[in-house]
Specification:
Elements lengths: L11 H28 L5 H9 L1 H29 L3 H28 L1
Helix pairs in contact: 1-3, 3-4
Protein name: Succinate dehydrogenase hydrophobic membrane anchor subunit
Subcellular location: Cell inner membrane; Membrane
InterPro entries: Succ_DH_anchor
Length: about 120
Amino acid sequence: MVLNQASLKRDGVQDYVSLRASAIVLTLYALFILGFFLVTPVVTFEVWQGLFANMAMKVFTLLALISIAVHTRIGLWQVLTDYVKSARLRAVLQFFLYALAFGYVAVGLFVLWGA
């Protein structure tokens, strides 16, 4: 059997690995932010701005935003295919929910890199 590896089709293994990888990134990001709040006695605007002025933090936040987009896309697809039986309604819901998720990521990118 010949498999086309250049295909854009997804499969279960790719979804599984993508979900787990994005969950790990998001967990590490949440733990980092929690740790920051625990070790920083007073969080002021200047301290917060200083944290996000660091290039490593910007890259880590960008990775977290991409992980949110991946996790959202796969999760919505799984939930909608399980619970919405009408193909037309599912397509409409997927379009609007994916557009909303894209909007959140776009705003996050604008806030992160635009200032």
